[in-house]
Amino acid sequence: MAPPPPSSASVTQPVIAAAGSAPPDNQTQPLAVVTEKLPWRHTFISLKVPNFRIFAMGHFIAVIAIWMQRIAQDWLVLQLSGSVTAVGFTVALQFMPSLVLGPWGGMIADRFAKRKILILCQSVAAILSAALAVLALTGVIMVWHVYVIAFVLGLVTVLDQPARQVFVNELVGPKYLRNAISVNSTTFQLGGLIGPAIAGVLLTAVGAGWAFAANALACCSTVTMLLLLRKDQLYVSAPTPKSKGMLREGLRYALSKPTIYWPWLMAGFIAVFAMSLPVLLAAFADHVYQVGAGGYGLLNALVALGALSGAVASTRRRQLRLRSVVFCAGMYGLMLCLAAVAPSMVWFGAVMVLSGFWCLMFLTGSNQLVQVSSNMAIRGRVMSLYIMVLIGGQALGGPMLGWIAEHVNPHAALLVSGGVPALAALSVGAILARKGGLQLRMDLKGRRPLRIVSRHARA
């Protein structure tokens, strides 16, 4: 591999010290990243990079269309089959390839040009979305058509997601990597706020077909944006040569660093139990509140509104702590539990906003922690393992939660969805506190009545 850009040493070296060679009592200490207070004008500072501006513009358009397709797809399956379990099965088909083939996608991302991989994937996605649009607009679409196209889109995701995650570093370099990840999350959630609202209108007015057509056009726009990038301004490193045991090497590397495997573990609990929220929202919209497609789009938009706030808040983080990532996962689970016992749709919607906030605080924090803890030569494989858990876990959780919502009730399904991650976060937090010698200290005279302190530091 070619030497990394000159500024990368300032990022990777403190991370290695914090995550690898530090004694157990320092494993939950903050990484040496941004320590000064960030001015508000620098909240989205990574957008000053011309290539990233172009990429973010195309990404924003694509995300709106992706959300439109996701909402339209789930609602279409629900209407065609009348089964929430069928909606969960669609989710499983779309995410199962990442669970099974995810590590190979990361290996390909390490070995080949990320930009070319993304152009290929977006071109195939455009063809698949166009096929779905034609089937829906001609009125011949059946549930099995959606199943097949969802599965093939899942195969595309196996290659697209690891390459997309690592490509952000090639766009901005290590200096703005954390901010760029947060900007991407903000873009995704802003699209998630607009996309479901548009999808709800389209589903009510003209049907699902036009949402699929919009996604096909958006994929074409993404390919155009990728072709417009200035290749001479990319932070491109030489591809990793093929060698025996590349996948095992990535797994060993990930398991050797607490700042990778603990977020990985929490991402697993969140993915299996709490990332299939659209499946449960479909059940609440159709069976609990009887608000139809428009209400389903509204509930998803409320989640996205909270997530957008969380994504913006994540750009203001001064320090990146492992324990704060676990805390955010626990708060997300707690919010879902509160939503399960909400007395009305108004309260349910309010808690959905808070759920979206804490979900994004966890997702951006864990993504940043895993990326900055990984050497560039192996980052594709490490991120593919992370994505395998995060996306592939939904393949298991979607059908399970859909079955509970249909055969027990949606409230019980949402309680399971939040309760398991909350208990997992509590357990992991206790383990980290014990390893780090942390304890909760009360100081009624100070500005912070409750503080987490280290027994070793006090000694």
Automatic annotation (TrEMBL):
GO cellular component terms, A-Z: plasma membrane
Gene Ontology MF annotations: transmembrane transporter activity
Subcellular location: Cell membrane
InterPro entries noted in UniProt: MFS_dom, MFS_trans_sf, TM_effector
Parts of the chain that traverse the membrane: 51-69, 117-136, 142-159, 180-203, 209-229, 261-285, 291-312, 324-341, 347-364, 385-405, 411-433
Location of the Major facilitator superfamily (MFS) profile domain: 51-436
UniProt cross-references to SUPFAM superfamilies, sorted A to Z: MFS general substrate transporter (SSF103473)
Its membrane topology: Multi-pass membrane protein
Keyword Cytoplasm set for record: no
Keyword terms of this UniProt record: Cell membrane, Membrane, Transmembrane, Transmembrane helix, Transport
PROSITE patterns from the UniProt entry: MFS (PS50850)
The UniProt record lists the keyword Transmembrane helix: yes
Superkingdom, taxonomy of origin: Bacteria
Entry-linked PANTHER family: INTEGRAL MEMBRANE EFFLUX PROTEIN-RELATED, STAPHYLOFERRIN A TRANSPORTER
Entry protein name: MFS family permease
Species assigned in the record: Pseudarthrobacter niigatensis
